[in-house]
Amino acid sequence: MTAPVTAPPAGGRFSTRGWILFAVMSVLWGMPYLFIKEAVETISPAGVVAGRTLAAALLLLPFALRAKAMRPAFAKIGWVLAFGAVEMAGPFFLLSHAELTLSSGLTGLLVATVPLFAAVIAVVGGDRAVLRPSRILGLVIGFVGVGVIVAGPAISEGDVAAGLVAVGEVLLVAVLYATAPFIVAHKLRDVPPLGTITVSLLVVGLCYLPVALIVQPAPPSARSLWALGLLAVLCTALAFIAFFALIREVGPARAPLFTYVNPVVAILLGVIVLSEPLTVGLLLGFPLVILGCWLAATGGTLRLRRPAVDPPPVAPG
Fold this sequence. Notes:
This protein is mostly helical. The chain is 71% helix and 0% strand. It contains 14 helices and no strands.
């Protein structure tokens, strides 16, 4: 994990191992929203962030030490901390706070707008390729889908103000997730991803721990603790290890394609496990968001070119 990831040609077929890893990642990063929803029932958002990040950091630390990935990360600690703030400290808290109001399925779908904001950021950064008509159409369709979801009964039937604030929090998470890769691409290219992730998780967890201990209103329930443990082990530590393996197997250009499946998993788990409503707004907005993200990210092509810079893992939950 200390060397740059080498990848097969972008047009090659997935191997059996690649498909297995693809399926694993589709589930692992489709589940966080269910576990967050369960955890915040009796654990404060700060407590969810502290528990998730510290447990995951301790699980990843042996792998990072074995790969000798920690020293390069500490050598650029300033930018590693900046990445941790944008990728973890902000998003993990905002998601936990938003799910005090929003359903887990709706949260997972809104996070799927990351490619839309990534395209906007790319335009601001001077990437003219994003201005292709098909990609602009994708941006329009995607944001229309968000509007359909927000205007639907999932928001209007409850506290509208609180619902809109929560939606804003999740969309801010999508902006932060879209921003984080640019920090890695420009400032942390020579730092092993495992080192960056482990150090970031550890520092974020230590920063949130005092706040979590102060604001925790009462002892958490066993159900919330189980959800927090699964969130840390499955959706953070194990998910990052599996994602590194997926990048090695299918290449960095195609590895993130599973993010189009994540919202389906999030919505189904919310409906099946938590009995969350499958609203008309969600049914109408979901295909628009996914179609818009696909067009904005790929321009409507099925063959992806390998990017000049390998993208870092970005956790959608």
